[in-house]
């Protein structure tokens, strides 16, 4: 890093900190302002903030690694989570369902769904604790990626027996914590908007450099990691590497860390099923927080659409970095051995003076926006659902904000502590998406669609599911992602059903209020039958449109992301096919979803 590059990075860090601190006074008005921005933040800012939060360094590094090692079909591996396909479900119906609850957190939502009695409180405390555990684990995951990237770029040395990656991650998190703790969601969102602009400048520069200067030879070699920690060069061709049509089988060596994807067709079908289950189950954390903060159903839909559109530019950037990595390997005669180091290698060896600093600042922005969202949303669960609900119900707004800031710091410290023994980004990402997250997916799914589901069932399913995930990681870490997900799904499902059927159902008054306000589809006949015919007709019409619209939205998001990639890969034949398909899907999406946003169904 030259003096100019370092100056750019330092200027960025100072600017982002000052922007965050500017909103400190607004955030101090109360916890509704601190955690939801008073529900006055415009939809486009929430959408831009969501995009910046999803554009993380860890995810970018692993996605670049997958494209580099697999070719373009590596894109489909990230159906497991990196494509953020849950956004299609949030855009069509899940976002507005969350907003209609008018709560602050997913845990508080449990009392809206299951009542304020013992079953609602049990579900609330378990939801809060499990969300905090997942938040700390995700902070660790993002810290590993940010540490690898920034440690390499800035050349941070080891201290006190701790790696350069640890200290690099600490630097980013400490700076992020300063403005997040001070400014709450308003500071998070508006710093994200600024960082989003910087990210876009970075994307344009890298894609332009790739298109103008990087050529993919007809035959070249890439590298894949082996299970023993070493790497193996593999020869491939330009046509095979740039093809977006996935094969039923791949041919990675059995001792490769990627050999679990050799039955590629089965893997993709599995990931697709997982996407539908998780998308239909909804989400919590910082993603749900954006929808709890939305002003209306219409805003919830528009912020989702904008979020997806902005996020689609991430994939041309990822493809461009992978192409530049291949080009560097060919021109230098040295293959990049570790696919997870392609991103920092490209920045260090290819980008010219000044642009290197701008790109580093852009990727630091991506890391910081993710950390800030996680920290703020995670702290809300301690303040709203544990401290205020069970410890000090009479706490003043000032005291609640103090606890929000303290909780933010503790989450950061715990997340950093877990990074010490984590070496591979892909390893922890696989466990988060296919293990720990899977432990909650069944109770999160059934809560929307089955009227009989109660708070005790949610509690049993979550405790048993997440407990099984932790036990599996400790005693059977070599389990494949598919086996882990399947075991957790079955165990959590069994616990949820047994816990529900052996305990009393949620009160009919609570169920009626939830159903007529949220209007979900699914198995709600005993509750729906209690509503007037006119209301039932309105709900049925909305549900029917949403079910048809999601069948357009899911492929639309995938095709949108792929279309931009084909430009960078210089596959105009594939671009034309995808563009025509994108137009068709967009028309269907407009007809069944977008044009109905202004005709929002209201059922009192």
Rg from C-alpha positions?
24 Å
Shape summary: globular
How far the N terminus sits from the C terminus, by CA atoms, comes to 60 Å
Identify the CATH homologous superfamily.
Sodium/glucose cotransporter
Mean pLDDT rating: 85
Number of helices: 26
CATH architecture classification: Up-down Bundle
- Quick one: biggest sheet? 2 strands, antiparallel
Q: Which segments are poorly predicted (pLDDT under 50) over 5 or more consecutive residues?
A: none
Write the H/E string, N to C.
HHHHHHHHHHEEHHHHHHHHHHHHHHHH
Q: Tell how many strands the DSSP assignment holds.
A: 2
Number of domains: 1
| Structural class estimated from helices and strands | mainly alpha
Percent in strands:
under 5%
- How do the strands of the widest beta sheet line up side by side? 1-2
Mind telling me the CATH class?
Mainly Alpha
Helix content: over 70%
CATH fold name: Sodium/glucose cotransporter
Defining key terms:
2 strands; two-stranded antiparallel ribbon; mainly alpha; Sodium/glucose cotransporter; 604 residues
